[in-house]
Amino acid sequence: MELSTEDFVSIRNLIYERTGMNFGDNKIYYFKKRLQKRMEENALGKVTEYIRFLKFGDRGEREFQELINLITVNETYFFREFNQLEIFAEVCLPEILEKKAAKGDRNLRIFSAACSTGEEPYTLAIIVKEMIEDYGNWNVLIKGVDIDENVLKTGSRAVYDSRSVKDVPPVYLEQYFTRPSPGKFMVKPEIKDMVVLEHLNLMERRALRNERHYDVIFCRNMLIYFDDQSRKQLVEKFYAMLNPGGFIFLGHAESLSRISTAFKVRRMNGYMVYQA
What we know:
Elements (H helix, E strand, L loop, with lengths): L4 H15 L8 H14 L5 H11 L4 H10 L10 H21 L4 E6 L6 H13 L7 E8 L2 H9 L1 E3 L8 H7 E2 L5 E4 L1 H4 L2 E5 L14 E6 L8 H14 E9 L13 E5 L2 E5 L1
Parallel strand pairs: 1-2, 1-7, 2-6, 7-8
Antiparallel strand pairs: 3-5, 4-5, 8-10, 9-10
């Protein structure tokens, strides 16, 4: 299969228009292998035919979703960037809970963007369960969303291999996981039931319109796939989703300094945390 620069740019632009994800010129070979797989599935011999199909013959954008499932990068594991999670658990979460309890508000809402196969929202559920002494008196919602349907299916099963749990503290591995077969680890229902996983394209115009009153948003290692304009649009949506004083966590290589001035920057143990 031949993938010309012109056709690559057409595919890349279509993805950008619909998802906000921006892929560089160096991704042409990465795209070629995945396009070839989808073209074979649809019995199409030319890239131009596939592009035409995506634009005009793809009812419900079903094929576009299959392509997105192939090209998204899903690198994650439990308790990733542990030091940052410690800040969430030991500084931010107690601050949120104290303010809410003082107002008689017992609702805690956490949003995990680009959650992939679910390790991050399940990690957050474990932390919340451990840190809230009177957990039974709180109404907790942890929502994880991703544009890739396949990874969400894995997350819904909540069964992982040893690599995914390599950084889970042994006491948590014993307490919150079962071992259904050799080398496999399943999240126990008490943690799994705390998490809701949903398919969502964050850049769809109405995607986050009804998502409000969150106390914490985790959006780690996702903004690097967007250009400045898309980042700005997405961060504005996140700001609208947060309660006053709510926190947003980014990946260690990401920053809001060039994107938004709406957040206060707080430095905690070498990490920057952004507060609404």
